[in-house]
Amino acid sequence: MDNTLRRIDIIKILMEYVKDELIISNIGFPSKELHHIKDRNENFYMLGSMGLCSSIGLGLALNTDKKVISIDGDGSVLMNLGTLSTIGHTKPNNFILLIVDNSAYGSTGNQKTHTNNTELDKIAKSCGLHTIKTKNEKELRDALTKALKENKTTVIVAKAKAYNEKTKNIKIPPVVIKYRFMNSVNG
Ligand SMILES: [Mg+2]
Prior knowledge:
sulfopyruvate decarboxylase activity; alpha/beta; decarboxylase; 41% helix; binds magnesium ion; two-stranded antiparallel sheet; single chain; coenzyme m biosynthesis; Rossmann fold; 8 helices
């Protein structure tokens, strides 16, 4: 039986554990699916800058005491691989990089990426990062529980199957997304 999770399942599970953590979600379906599951002031929906979700999350984590979670994708991390080296070098104690690895550029039509043979968890590990690879719901729940409890940067590579939930576009004006998020960072 194929019990590989979809991105929407992974984000739903994540949101069961999230309290007041700040979330940066990648442009496209990660943001749309997060918005669909649970809209909140602490969500920063990226509307541009593909590839930079992890970098924005890192920059934020280095400038706040709050816990920051980046919901990124394999395609996005592949186009900004240097990010893992930078995260490994800086390692704030309040950052979780959740890479939903569905081996596809989901938001542009599920074209294949190269994560069938490029193992992002191994790259993250070799950058000195505490890394957990998950292949099913139980492993993901265990990883999230641990990562949210611990005070260290954790990279979770959550293997997924390519699927995009049919969600509406986010209608919140970008400036509102920005200001309500800034308020929750400072509040
Ligand atoms: Mg992907």
